Queue: 2 jobs
Job 1
Amino acid sequence: MDPSVIRSRLAVAEGRLYWRSLGELADTLEFREYLHREFPAQASEWNDPKGRRQFLKLMSASLALAGVGACTKQPAEHIVPYIRQPEDLVPGRPLFFASAIPLSGVAQPVLVESHMGRPTKIEGNPQHPASLGATDAITQAAVLDLYDPDRARTLTHRGEIRPWSAFLTAMQAETARQKARQGAGLRFLSGPITSPSLAEMMATILAENPQARWHQYDPVTRDGARIGTQQAAGAPAHAIYHLAKADVVVSLDADFLTCGPGSVRYQKDFAARRRVTDERKEMSRFYAIESTPSLTGAKADHRLALQAGAIEGFTRELAGSVGAGPGGAAPGPGASVPGPDAPDIQKWVAAIGKDLQAHRGTSLVVAGDYQPAAVHAAAHAMNQALGNIGATVTYGAAIEASPVDQAASLADLVRSIDAGQVEVLVILGGNPVYSAPVDLKFSEKLVKVGLSVYHGLHVDETANLCHWNIADAHPLESWGDARAYDGTVSIIQPLIAPLYEGRSAHEVLTVFTSQTDRRGYPIVKDYWTRAFGGGSGWTIRAADGQPFKDAETFWRRALHDGFISGTAIADGGPATPFTAATAAAPAAGGAGSAAPTNPPPAAPPASAGSAAAPAAAPQAPAAPQPGGLEIIFRPDPTVWDGRFANNGWLQELPKPLTKITWDTSAWISPQLAREHRLSDGDVIELRYRGNTARMPVFRVPGHPAQSVTVFLGYGRRMAGRVGNAANEAEGFNAYLLRTSDAPWFGSGLEISKTGARYLLATTQEHHLMEGRAPVRVATLEQYKAEPAVIHEQAHNFPRTLTMYPDFQYPGYKWGMAIDLSSCTGCSACTMACTAENNIPVVGKEQVAAGREMHWIRVDHYFAGHESDLEGERAIESYHQPVPCMHCENAPCEIVCPVAATTHSSEGLNDMTYNRCVGTRYCSNNCPYKVRRFNFLLYQDWTTPSLEPMRNPDVTVRSRGVMEKCTYCVQRINQARIDAKREDRKIRDGEIVTACQAVCPSDAIVFGDLNDPASQVSKLKAQQRNYGVLEDLNTRPRTTYLATLRNPNPELEPAPAGTTEH
Amino acid sequence: MDSKLDAYALSRDDYNPPPLIEPGHTFGSVTEQIAAIVLTRRHPYSWVFGLFVGFMLSMMLLMAITWLLIKGTGIWGVNVPVGWGFAIINFVWWIGIGHAGTLISAILLLLKQDWRTSINRFAEAMTLFAVVCAGIFPLIHTGRPWLAAYWLLPYPNTMSIWPQFRSPLIWDIFAVSTYLTVSLLFWYVGLVPDLATLRDRAKSLHIRRLFGLLALGWRGSARHWERYEAAYLLLAGLSTPLVLSVHTVVSFDFAIGIIPGWHATIFPPYFVAGAIYAGFAMVLTLAIPLRVLYGLQDFLTMRHLENMGKVMLVTGLIVGYGYVMEAFFGFYSANRYEEYMILNRMTGPYWPFYWTLILCNILTPQFLWIKSVRTSPIKLFLIAMVVNVGMWLERFVIVITSLHRDFLPSSWGMYWPTRWDLMTFFGTIGLFVTLFFLFVRVLPMISIFEMRTVVPAAKVRGGKAH
């Protein structure tokens, strides 16, 4: 500050001058400004009219301009309200549409739950005889297949994206050329087709191109059954079993409960015949003679482990004992049975034969799909000799349009390629490059074809070698039709417009017809309109037998019901019409002729047996040679022939008996493991007929000692991000060993230990009950004599031992009962729960770490002790689905520090995800270990195609939160809303949990325990009812009905006292 | 005082225990020697090295926790059925170690065990740091620590949701936070006279100011001493039940559960004894190198070491009794789950852990019966290290072997730690080392004024010398 300024100020001042600072005294401009600006910015403007105006102008301008900013064009988002609301669509409420999901051509009838146009969940079709409301696990997983982000999305030519018109142009030129030559260079390859409309298209094409050929191949071929039944019946036919009528069932290596067409219905019928109530203490008896242990065998009262090749010999002996064959005196069969066991076999044959004879007309012999024709023929002869035909088994016309010997058909195709006859090859589905028998060298042949077209859901191994790739439309997004195991036709209707540029097989075939622009809907509808008018041999009637008013009424009814009533073979439905005379040769005989409902076998039983033998000779390998092992092929229980390899749900579904996820394994017996010093996870090299493959082994008690079972479906290289085999697992491919002459088993296998180890991620490591009786077992005789035998197997806690009064549940009191006698362990419940409750896939490493997320698991136990697992005997195994027990005294609830898990007034043990902080104390304290924790971010939040798949009624859980079975609380609440609106109580059976709905054997029942008339209350009142770990006083709400066995006293002497498990 | 007690006092006086301080020390020399460590002496390179190692390990801890927060608890080895793994093992281990400090400070003070004076300061510091290390785990082991951080506290909120007071985890929150608070207060109150000493002796102005601030105006007047004594005694009284309560409550985390191997009435006393056992082992682990490094043999005499050895022997025997009873009841209960649990510990897949634990915690301490072992710093150090390992294994055995095979054989599983588990564990050891080395550097690790009371000169003047 300039002192001179101050001095001058002082000089001019008059009177007494006061100043606070020299600055004020100097009164400089800066100081005034400082005083003025003492208050925050813009404060002084408020007192200045001009400044204020300026300020407000600026403010309003910037506000207005901020609004202008909103005028920028944003990316288009179509949120358009319905102008015309679709009928019945209430936002927030799902709609259900009837449709079908085919597997190998055979329809599994379903109802698809659709949320605002998005299919999210599949239920069985309760009215359809092949479903009765249930489905299998594979069908449940179809939703994920639809939304699979790795699906083929578009049409490509040599890897480049092309429009449909380009394909059409190319094909029309080619078709015209072929037509001129009567289609001599045109070949089609597909799986088995039951679709009448597709068959008609194929027939038309073949009629226009008489020299063209249609080949069929399915890796899970049922040639044995097909040929055997044909030999017996004289025409292509297939057997339909009526297990609900059978008191004695003998399975000859048949896995009829979990594999193959009709298994869902068979499970239902089988369970019904074995359901013991306090009123009716009867059940059927089931003998399983089988090679590879299966879930069907696990349900057997007596299971005999034989090599697959020895089943035929056993069958002949058994046929002899029931008067349907040459008998056991023949030296042949005896020789095919391994020496040391021979006397035992005689005992089995005698006992089973006697039991069968005693139940003429109510017994049933079922031959396995993977056994040669001779076994089927002999089984057929036995059923006839026992008077079972027409009672427990009926024969119907083939549901396949053109039943062929598929192995021969594919071999034919390969021969034609070799002969240079194939110019255009159209592959409709399947993945033959991966799955064809190794001796055909299909991939080498395929590249020789001049023009190859592949139509499939994925760009897989076959697509990779074909010129044109057409993206297939999933059954949930396309029109079609298919027949169920009993012949009933289902219309497949789309739930959603194709997500990508998918075209159905119908639409692809139009290219080879004159009407190239037809879409799936008109094709299918037109076919059935004509069928209604009497074409194609169909007689269409409503369920009550009356004719429909018109075609439109029929069509709407068929769509609504999901099936066309009266089309079952048993109801007079015709064989799928297929009239092209030039179809693959073996089919020609049976085509067109509708087989009668119960055709009498063409040949007398004795000759059927003998006629079968020579026919089967080339197929059935000779008796096991010393030194060589037997190899058995089986479809994988979850990924099937490999087509579901990219389905994470199925990959993570624990495989039956072993509980392995994500990988295949070669099953060996504990004896063989000891001989070769192998333990679980050791990689072996398998050498068979000059081919080699590698597999990790897994010891399975009850496996035939000198056999090795390998499963199809793994070692894929082009399945997608989920299904591609890791480097070390690329050789784990059973197709590398499979030859066309012995699709299911053969001898001469050699194995050797490689020294490598492979991690097999299992969800259950311990398969013994350790005396804790989680599964309680009694024989029917024991139970009849003393029902308390069930409760004596563990301590029971006296209910009086508490100081507190019981909580009263004034409204509802939910509970569940699971009948272990019915449960087969098929794991459909786990899959249904996964789909319903948005359960994430965690991957192999996480499963190996013990972090699988399934809310309901299926536990598997062997009966007996450690030593029994090593023995030769086929030991009993049991399955137990374990959801949350919803304990009344829940140990999880008292330890949660934040009250995130609490008891509801209706008895549910609720989880509040939002409140959970993830201490995991509840999981530790849960004696049933049903709680699942999101250790990492398991839910896929980023893949867009998975978003529409989720059930909007169920919270999608994030990382760090505990979760568990809720008894499908969203379904309970839905029913509650409905009931409240109608001012009534929730009816029994109105709430069906996802696991209950899907269960093919009706083992799971849910309902209100306060209602004594409810089904679940009745089940809980049964003497068989018990709670697991009741001695802990947890008071589980999920209880179990003990499993009962019905052994033949001749084979199993009644044990003294309770069985020790 | 009645004559009986007098006689007792006499007889005690007749007993001449080895001195608590080597002869030749005066008030001045004690003060000088201890204060110099903080104020003037150069720190040995081993200190620099130790701090460096500790610091690096702490950084590893930071990294491990950061990755944990990014990815989730799944980076650890925990699973279903073993929902608790290293985090809870380490928590209980650290909390156990944190017991010796309070025991030495409070209970031994009340029992007038004057040999505690030379070890109580750093034992208390050890307690605090151990509780800090322990406190990390319960929080980060949760799935959503950012919510667990306050949802477990009973605070009023708009949702009117309280914690679930039946859960032992809530009891833990109260027990551990009380313990930390009281221990901190106790430690700090005990430090005040020494902080004043440092203030008075500090040469640098800043350091003088810093210590002056911390000394809260302590001038050493008689009135100060009187109030100090009262406060210290009160805090000792407060802390005493805590020594028993904290680990009792921690043991409830297990005992309240229904898992075989957890659900046992013996847990509270057995855990408390184990905690003292572990705590003394850790005090020895720290004291033996410290007295050599800083030449404190005069203050941390062989008598101290021997006494601590004796405490370890006694608590070790109690712990051993706990193990025996656990096994006995396993078989005697006639409960198949309990039977299986104890058999599984002994012969199951984790048998090496169980038997190493028995070796470490029951067999090794038996050497402490021998006087020559108790008076050999090296042997004592080795035994203390073995006990540290043993006590960690004890928690491993309790947490893991109980959970991994509980009721339903179908759900049995295995637990193995991942590298992140190990990094977190060793990280907390690093944090502990870092804190402890810093403590040694900036605060008197032995109570100066209390040491002065055991100088012979104090005895000559008779009575209490404060």
Job 2
Amino acid sequence: MKYFFFSLLLLAGTAQATQALIEFQSPEQQALFKELTHELRCPKCQNQNIADSHAVVAVDMRNKTLELVQQGQTKEQVLDYMKSRYGDFVHYQPPLNKFTFILWLLPALMVLGLILLLVVRRKAESKRVDTDPVDTAQVHAEPHLEQQLDQLIEQYRRKS
Amino acid sequence: MRKLAFFIPFALFIGLSVFLFSGLFSNPMERESSVMNQPLPAFALPDLQQPEKIWTPDSVKGKPFLLNVWGTWCVTCNAELAYLTELREQGVMIVGLYYQQPADAAFGEVFNLSALQQEVALKLEQQGNPYQWNILDKDRTLIFDLGVTGAPETFLIDAQGIIRQHHIGDINPQVWQQKLAAAYQSLQE
């Protein structure tokens, strides 16, 4: 029975092999095609690149990308071709413009804000130590309070 | 200062909640079209029922019209045929751009024009025919140049052949009233 299922797997292998292979003139073109189909986004399906999607529009975009790459067009040319039809949406790397600047600005602002917060807190803390002589003076003036505290701590430690 | 520090996380939380809540009602399919206010891209495509007749941007323009991308395989397109037919009866000019899906060679499919013509004629007879004529885009070249993501989509073209509206999704009374009717009327004058 086990061998029967394994032989079915062999059949699946031969079915796979009938898919069409794409031939490229150079390894560079092959790499560019791979890069582009992974960076271009299917406009129909929300979060798939065109290499991954089987939507008609993704298949058409893939074929067009192949055609343009085989014509020897550069990455920028292909991206511009797609963007002029489907907008900036189709490229997974959004351009920096007045609609998207917040994407770059926000993380920087958050880091700056955190640093500012840290600095302010450090300052407030060191100030408290400097200008708060009451606590330390009290402890020094009444050493028996400190002893009491030590005893209490010792008690609780034993209990647990 | 202390009070302020207490309210910052609260304000951040409220801000994030409002942002995410409004996101629940936004439409992810809605986005700026790249072809708005551009002239129709160059094309030379056959008429679906009379393939010897070739349509070009120059031969389709002259009057404001709706260019409706559709296919008999598309369920939503079939659902909007009745309302589009109503619009035609009110005097709106509608041209069909037929979205042909690729024939899947692995399943032995081949493109058959006369079968398609019969299928389209039958469908329009049953559901109503809103189209003055249909342009067949077998390889989806014009559809690609127009930035169409799927069917149905509708373009409002003015008398000079400039694209004035690009609507993704079906046309129903609400969409027509809110998005297209006023623009269409203003082009008439």
